[in-house]
């Protein structure tokens, strides 16, 4: 970006050099060149700092963000655990049915009314 000094500053330079326009122009060009060099260096430093910050941020976040492979492995592990729990629930439901059957059979077998009914049938 080209920079030029304001008109008022140039007039002040011209006055400082005893109305010597050429010297004022040379000095103004030197000031403008210095300002442009400072701006260029500042832009380079900002660009370098921005790249360094990007790299640092990337390195810090890379360790904390989950990768696709990690997420897939976790999902597969959870699916395996869910399948195992499903199997255990089915097995527990079967055990519960067996226990209920044994309980009903036991209550029926030792019920006095049932015993009398069996005796009547067997006679």
Structure description:
The chain folds into two domains: 1-65, no CATH class; 67-123. The protein is rod-shaped and about 145 Å long. Helix 1 (7-16) packs across helix 2 (21-64). The protein is built from four helices and no strands. The longest helix is centred in the middle third of the chain and has 44 residues, at 21-64. It has helices at residues 7-16, 21-64, 68-109, 112-122. The protein is mainly alpha-helical and 123 residues long.
Q: How would you summarize the topology of this molecule?
A:
Elements: H1 7-16, H2 21-64, H3 68-109, H4 112-122
Helix pairs in contact: 1-2
Keywords:
123 residues, mainly alpha, 87% helix, 0% strand, rod-shaped
Quick summary of this structure?
The chain has 123 residues and is mainly alpha-helical.
The main β sheet shows up as: none
Would you tell me the structural class of the helices and strands? mainly alpha
Q: How large, in whole angstroms, is the Cα Rg? A: 46 Å
Helix content: over 70%
Topology order in helix (H) and strand (E) letters: HHHH
Mean pLDDT reading: 87
């Amino acid at each position: 970006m080209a920079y030029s000094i304001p008109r008022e500053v140039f007039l002040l330079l011209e006055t400082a050099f005893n109305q010597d326009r050429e010297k004022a122009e040379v000095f103004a060009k030197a000031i403008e060149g210095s300002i442009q060099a400072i701006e260029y260096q500042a832009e380079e430093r900002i660009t370098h700092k921005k790249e360094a910050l990007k790299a640092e941020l990337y390195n810090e976040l890379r360790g904390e963000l989950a990768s696709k492979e990690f997420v897939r492995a976790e999902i597969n592990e959870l699916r395996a655990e869910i399948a195992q729990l499903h199997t255990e629930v089915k097995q527990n439901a079967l055990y519960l049915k067996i226990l209920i059957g044994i309980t009903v059979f036991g209550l029926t077998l030792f019920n006095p009314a049932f015993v009398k009914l069996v005796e009547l049938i067997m006679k």
